[in-house]
Amino acid sequence: MKIGVLTGGGDAPGLNIAVYTFAKLAERKHEVYAIFHGWKGLLNKEVKKTSSSELLDFAFAGGTYIKTSRTNPFKDEERAKVLAKNVEELGLDVVVAIGGDDTLGAAGEAQRRGILNAVGIPKTIDNDVWGTEYTIGFDTAVNEAVKAAESFKTTLISHERVGVIEVMGREAGWIALHTGLATMADFVLIPEREVAWDLVAERIGRAYEAKRWALVVVSEGVKSYGGPVDEFGHVRLGGVGNELAAYLEKRTGLETRAAIPGHIIRGAPPTAFDRVLAVRYATAAYEAVEEGRFGVMTTYRDGEIGYMPITDVVGKNKLVSGAWLKLYETYWGGSE
């Protein structure tokens, strides 16, 4: 078989390991082709036969050696026709799509239309893909966010200041929640739980009075400021950290600083957890290809790797809920 592999959407630590592992397994019996720049690569025929030896030097680095894009192959019917034509001309039997809900959604639509056979692997630092507990890149992003928060905390303590650190995550508060729990932040704001900023100011004032410094973690998706959108309709986020810091300083009279690590938390070398997760997902994707099990996405649930239909992922976001939201409420809930 001719098997194509692509990475779409935002980059995430662990992508290179997933691509390398899949190629290492598949090249024993099949031809493996790197599709550069995600779905854009299939539209432009940026496809090249590859091997695990070619990919090895980049396997343990962050980012994605085969590049990425936020191109929507089904933005219009003309693109969809080009996609179908190119897949046929390239002779690809299967495409392994590694990405978040947009990339996987496109894979599911391509499978539904009969354009190609697809197997999906979930990745995104946001950890918001439906049906799986962990996505490739999330653990590394949290560890990097915690590292940034701890460094920030050092200067807050030294200067007796209040600090607000804004982390990525889009509409899901997973990174903010885990960063807040890992650092025992004085307050955490996530998109899933609307909180009045005057309550935050009150809590921070009390925390500062007790220890002469305070740390707030806020998810970028708590507030949207409009602006350009990508081909999947997502607005660019960011800026709430600076606004919240200014508000807290004015409301409390305490010197407040904001830190925004931004894309830095997604560019680090993958943690051991993300490396092993990428290997497990890639192995499961290869097994699905060998078994002719197409139209599925690999999943992680209760420590076990499994599968679910890609179409079940489309249009859904896994947000902070259940026991995780209860944990949030335990530390930062209440209305007093």
In short:
Helix content is 42%, strand content 17%.
- Give the number of DSSP strands: 11
Q: How would the global form be characterised?
A: elongated
Query: Strand order across the biggest sheet?
Result: 3-2-1-4-5-10-11
**Uncertain stretches of 5 or more adjacent residues:** none
What class, by secondary structure content?
alpha/beta
Distance between the termini: 63 Å
Our Rg estimate from Cα atoms comes to 21 Å
Question: How many helical stretches?
Answer: 11
Largest sheet: 7 strands, mixed
Percentage of helical residues?
A: 40-55%
Give the SSE string: EHEHEHHEHEHEHEHEHEHEEH
Mean pLDDT: 95
Strand residue percentage = 15-25%
Textual characterization of the structure:
By secondary structure, the protein is an alpha/beta fold. 42% of the residues lie in helices and 17% in strands. The protein has 11 helices and 11 strands. It has helices at 15-26, 38-44, 52-55, 77-90, 101-112, 138-159, 174-183, 197-211, 240-252, 272-291, 322-332, and strands spanning 2-7, 31-35, 47-49, 94-99, 118-122, 162-167, 187-189, 214-219, 256-259, 296-301, 304-309. The strands form 2 sheets. It has a 7-stranded mixed beta sheet, with helices on both faces. The chain has a 4-stranded parallel beta sheet with strand order 7-8-6-9. Strand 4, helix 5 and strand 5 (118-122) form a beta-alpha-beta unit. Helix 1 (15-26) runs parallel beside helix 10, helix 6 (138-159) crosses helix 7 and helix 8 (197-211) packs across helix 9. The longest helix has 22 residues, at 138-159. 51% of the residues are buried. The mean pLDDT is 95.
